[in-house]
Each structure stands twice: as C-alpha cells, then as structure tokens.
Amino acid sequence: MIPYRHLARMSHLAARFVGGSDVHVVDPLVDLRSLFERTDQLKMAVESRNLKIDVEAVRKEYEEWFEVYQRWKSAADKESSADRKKELRAKKDGLLNALALPNFIHHFGSKQTPLLKQSKHAQYLAQQGFMRIDKQNHVVHLAGYPVAMQKLIREQLVDLFPGCQPISPSYFARAAIIEALNVDPATCIPFTDGSSHFPLTYLVGNSLAALTAPFLKTAFSDKNEWPISVQCTGASYVQKKSQPDLCNSRQRMKHCALWLSKSAEEIEGIVTDVTVRVGAYLDEGLLLEVQVREVQASELKNYESQAFVVENRGLVLSRISRIDDYVSKRLNIQYSGREATEKTEAIDGGFVQMVYVETDIDRIIARLTDDLIDGKEPPKFVRDAIKKSF
Known about the structure:
Largest sheet: 7 strands, mixed
Helix content: 25-40%
Mean pLDDT: 90
CATH topology of the largest domain: BirA Bifunctional Protein, domain 2
CATH class of the largest domain: Alpha Beta
Number of domains: 2
Oligomer: single chain
Shape: globular
Number of helices: 14
Radius of gyration: 23 Å
Order of helices and strands: HHHHHHHEEHEEHEEHEEEHEEEHEEEHH
Low-confidence stretches: 1-7
InterPro entries: aa-tRNA-synth_II/BPL/LPL
Structural class: alpha+beta
CATH superfamily of the largest domain: Bira Bifunctional Protein, Domain 2
C-alpha cells in the first residue's frame, strides 16, 4: 500500500504556511493540539480505516512545527518574523501530515457489505433506444422515459426536505476545498483553461465540495434560523470508471443536501430524521426493496465520523454522512457567540456541526429498470412516463 502521506498533501489548504503552492483562499484551524490530546481515539480512527499513518511520528513533527508557529506569531520585528517564517516552511510536513489525519469516529456498524447484484439496465435501455454510452468520455446520454424519471425524482427529493433552501452552487472547486474534505484528489476531475497560471481547480458538480465552498470563512449568528440547511440537484462528476453506465458513469445525476448546526445533539436528530426520510421514500415511494446499513469503520470516508447507506441489492443509492466539526474547522465556518445581558445568558461561539446526504438519482433509475426487466410492477409515475415516451 502506498503510504498515506503521499496520497493526501494539504499544501493548497495550508498555502499560507507552506508558501508558493497556490492562491491562498483558506485559513484552516492550525492549532491542532486538541487532536493529540485524544491519542487513543485518533489511533483507532486511523487503524480502523486501514490507513498507514504513524500517529506518534505525526504528533512529534506537528509539535515541532507548532512551536515555531507560536514564535512566529509573537515575533516583535519584521526580520525576526521573516526568519521564523522560513523555519515554519522548512518544517511544513508537521502541519501537512496533521491536516491529513482523518476525522474521529463517532460510531460504526458491524454488518458486512452485501453482495452486489449486477445491473442489467444498460443493455435493456440501449436496445430500447433510451440510452447511449459514450465510451471514450465514460458518460451516458439518456432519452425518453428515463429523462422524465430523472426530472420527477429530482423534484420529489427536493420536496422531501421542505426546510432545505435550494441553491445552485458552482460546479468547480479549488484544490484547497478538496483538501479540506480530505478526499483523494485522484478521484476528482482537474480543470484548467490551458494557461500556466490557472490555479488548480476541479470539476465537481453537485457535491459536498460544491455545497461547503460558499460558506468558506463564514461566521453565522443567532439571527440565522438554525439548523441552516441547503440542497441542490444536478450533475455530479468523478474520474473515469471502468464500466460507464447509470451506476458508474463519471457524470451522474444526484441530489445533495447539507445541514449546519451548533450542537452535536441536534446533529444526532438530523441524521436519524434524514435516514428515515430517504429510506421511506425509496422503499415506499419508489417501491424499491432497500436496506439501511450503518457502514463499518473501514468504509468511512476521511471526513466522516459516522455514515449510513441505503442500499438495493448491494448498490448504494444514498449515503448519509455525519461530519461533526471536522470540515468546518478546515474551512473556517463558525457561529458567533453572544455576550450576556440582563435578559439573556452568554453563548460561546464555535465551529458548526455538519450532516451531508447524497442520493444518486441515476442509480435509482438503474434499479427501477432492473425491477422492470424482472417483471416487477413499477410505481405509477414510472408507468406514466413509459407510456408518454412511446
């Protein structure tokens, strides 16, 4: 296995402290000493994910970097500050490797990943003239009733969360945003205008990166209605897959929603509510036989502390991610405190807690088509869409 430190460098996220890597857009929390106060939990988070990270070595390097950082912050003159900054950059691995550490684990499941039943939708839809596969670019083009199904499912998913504000996020994200999520950049599509000075940018479409980027360096207040929630639907992009179809195409239709909260207790309730809503919609609304499974520790993404998936015959249709304050500390998304008055108590500020849900609409259509092939009676809206397409 390739050492993890070579897979996730945080030089764009920490540009201010490493120098010359990219346009500086983020001020992540760099006082990470609290991470190493929970060494046992940190080691469990690393080992459970099967990551090859020496936590003690990372701690030692980080402590050396942070000592220089404190001297730089308190430097009295420009010359002293410049010397400290050079030393800071010389010891940059201490910060970069600490930022590459994954989230703590809140909870994980024990159920094994179910056996994946292969989908027959691609051949069926292609024969009917409803799908064309662009093998060169690994994308799928739909026509007829699958397009009508896409549109209706998108609308139904938006209606499923009436409190979520619909937004239209940018389809592009700077490298610093990708690093803040601590995902492997090799899974994302780099984008450039062809010039040498264009900053490293990725085509992400509707995704967690797209939903969190607008809140970069934001400080919310009590005047906001909590929890804050937003949602979007549309194309999402990943790197090429070996099998381009509705389940694995590099461009797929998704519904994404993000909740921001001030308390871990509220996050717990949001995770439960969202999981029940999505599971019930897929099972009762679309008549898909789905199971909800809490993922094992080794399946957790680096930014997740807990995750549930809604699956149909081994295929993940939706994923509900508990993130806590992991991403908000890296993108500096906070809520402001409040001083005490005669009528109100003081409230401490802090970093927001997050829950993210991503539902793959194209995969839903693939499984609905599989049911159709197997002779199962589809939901009424699917029957109506099929009738209109002929």
